[in-house]
Amino acid sequence: MSNSSERAFAFSTLSPERVCEAVEQALDVHCTGEILALNSYENRVYLLCLESGERVVGKFYRPDRWSRDALMDEFAFVDELSEAGVAVAKPLKLKNGQILGEMPEGLWFSVMPYCTGRQTDEWDDEKLIQLGRAIGRMHRVGQRKAASHRHRIDVSYLGRRALDELKRMHALPPQIEPFYMRFAEQLIAKIEPLFEGVAMQRIHGDCHRGNLLWQGDRIIFLDFDDFGMGPAVQDLFMACPSADAMGKAQRERLLEGYNQELAFDRRQLQLVEPLRALRYMHYSAWVAGRLNEEAFQRVFSHFGTLRYWQDALSDLQEQWARIESDLEGEPQGLTGGNGYVGFANGVRFDGEFDDDNFGNR
Question: Catalytic residue at 350?
């Protein structure tokens, strides 16, 4: 049994040759050697061509992110969805009868058929209603039972856990850390009561447009890596995330289709902006935890700068104002100047953190 550091090294040095070898042995097939790395920061995902003419997708999981039981929860949900007629990218059975393969280095992987189709950024009412129906069917299956080994998409997981990680990693510049942390904690305290009594069920968790594949009138749900227990509105929010009037109108069209399959509790709509705020915190902690990897350093070269955290704090302050507006009908916390004013329990930030106030950057 390999240890954590050995698995991490194997993951970081995973080669096309090892990928082909793992898939060939698992499925008892032969690859042509044609292999394409697909877009994924969290896992390693490859399109492989087989000598039979078929194409498959091999997904190699980041070590120590999920337990075996957690991955089996994901596969069980995908299998239930497929049996219920919801179109999903379902992992293939390997020659040993299992779904989850394991390399000698201790890396877990699965293999899926390659799904063709298209992604779209052009939403009309008909497409939104159709997508709403598809999400409703998925959630109807999701209500059947819990995923006991997966995370809960809630304040604790997305918010408090993220702040704890940021503190542990000393990710913020000292000039801004006390301001960001205190404001984020006050925002969490404001958000948390809104989640009381909210029904949690199995959901996709990351149902953005990149994880939706259209085959004519058929919608295929891809990539259940962030699947967990959460409020139904999370998937609607990710499908149509805009905070403006258009985004709200799009979510209403989604609900028009959703309610044809499953009754939606409209009280959950007040969680859209809180979920956005929590996602901001979670995103920052996620990037901070991956910055030792070259790909993250290249793509997120701006991360960790004072400017990044100024913008991150302003984003949270804007979310405070949106949440206030949704709850009370009047926007609060906005300035007419260069930045947002956070006023939660005396935490205040106007515009820039400049040299005069905080020393050299």
Answer: no
CA torsion 135→138→143→144, rounded to 10°? 170
Q: Give residue 328's pLDDT.
A: 79
pLDDT of residue 329: 62
Total of domains in the chain: 2
pLDDT of 223 over the 90 cut? yes
How many angstroms separate the CA atoms of 55 and 113, rounded?
7
pLDDT on residue 214: 94
User: Both 192 and 265 in a single domain?
Assistant: yes
Q: What is the mean pLDDT of residues 104-130?
A: 92
User: What is the residue range of 299's domain?
Assistant: 125-358
Given the residues 223, 225, 226, 235, the one annotated as active site: 223
Q: Which of 154, 206, 226, 235 is catalytic?
A: 206
119-136 average pLDDT score: 92
CA quadruple 327, 328, 331, 333: dihedral positive or negative? negative
Instruction: Say if residue 331's pLDDT is above 80.
Output: no
The whole-angstrom separation of Cα 110 and Cα 8 is 18
Stretch 1-13: mean pLDDT, rounded? 85
Residues 51 and 150 in one domain: no
- 361 close to 306: Cβ distance less than 8 angstroms: yes
Q: Domain of 81: which CATH number? A: 3.30.200.20
Query: Is residue 93 within 8 Å of residue 220, measured between CB atoms?
Result: no
CA–CA dist 131, 153 (Å, integer): 22
84 shares a domain with 9: yes
For the whole model, what pTM was predicted? 0.89
| Percent of the chain predicted with pLDDT > 90 | 83
Point out which residues pair with 219 in neighbouring strands.
214
For 268, phi then psi, to 5°, come to: -70, -20
* CA pair distance 22, 127, nearest whole angstrom: 39
pLDDT of 23 > 50? The answer is yes
28 annotated active-site: no
- Do 201 and 345 lie in one domain? The reply is yes
Query: Which stretches of 262-354 are DSSP H helices?
Result: 272-290, 294-299, 306-328
246 CB-contact burial (10 Å; exposed 0-12 / middle 13-18 / buried 19+): exposed
pLDDT the model gives residue 352? 43
